[in-house]
Write a structure and sequence with these properties.
Elements (H helix, E strand, L loop, with lengths): L2 E8 L2 H4 L8 E4 L10 E6 L11 E5 L4 E4 L10 E3 L4 E6 L17 H15 L19 E7 L12 E7 L1 H4 L8 E7 L11
Antiparallel strand pairs: 1-6, 1-7, 2-3, 3-4, 4-5, 8-9, 8-10
Length: 199
């Protein structure tokens, strides 16, 4: 585990009530039922004054949401950096988890294994892991992807369309998300033909 020592002090529920989501705090680093005897950098999910019942919700920089009763002596509590405090162990980010969707032309088991081996050679055998694998046959067809306002007027022309991506494979569309208030329109790909006369 990659940790560093940080000088911090434990906060009371009253002190936490004065904090906001922008204030950096430390909470227990335990995640998904895995207890860890250290802390993780975090932020309150909403201003401390909004919480009732003495329980506070915080989200760690690793995406875990934790609920803390700061005045409960049996819990790790919520801490804030303070030079006059005591040393605690804080878990550091050691890397980035990538969720990749890879397209392998004429993909077969041998080509996937060679791709996996090349990644392990580049980053280290203990670093690259396959958490889940879904093999999907991709048709040799491309589509055009547009965005339109989600509540467009009927009989409106296509002036509001925003070409989001060209020459995209249909299976990739499901990994994309439209902009807020917009929806995707998928159409068969049309080559752009330039009819401008040339001399």
């Amino acid at each position: 585990m990659n940790t560093e020592k940080v000088t911090a002090r434990r906060l009371t529920a009253e002190e936490i009530s004065g904090l906001g989501p922008q204030d950096a705090i430390f909470v227990s680093a335990g995640m998904s039922g895995l207890p860890l005897d250290c802390y993780a950098p975090a932020f309150l999910t909403e201003p401390g004054k909004n919480f009732e019942g003495g329980s506070f919700a915080a989200r760690t920089v690793f995406g875990e949401e934790v609920h803390v009763l700061p005045d409960n002596a049996e819990e790790a509590g919520i801490w804030i950096a303070d030079k006059a405090g005591e040393e605690i162990e804080v878990l550091q980010s050691a890397g980035v988890l990538l969720n990749l969707a890879l397209f392998v032309p004429s993909g077969n088991k041998e080509s996937l294994e060679s791709l996996y081996s090349a990644a392990r050679d580049a980053f280290g055998a203990g670093v690259v892991q396959r958490w889940s694998e879904e093999v999907v046959a991709v048709p040799d067809v491309k589509v055009d992807l547009y965005e339109e306002p989600a509540r467009a007027r009927k009989n409106a022309n296509n002036q509001n369309r925003d070409r989001r991506a060209l020459d995209i494979y249909p299976t990739r569309v499901r990994f994309l998300e439209p902009s807020e208030g917009w929806k995707f329109i998928v159409e068969p790909h049309k080559e752009i033909v330039d009819d401008t006369p040339t001399i």
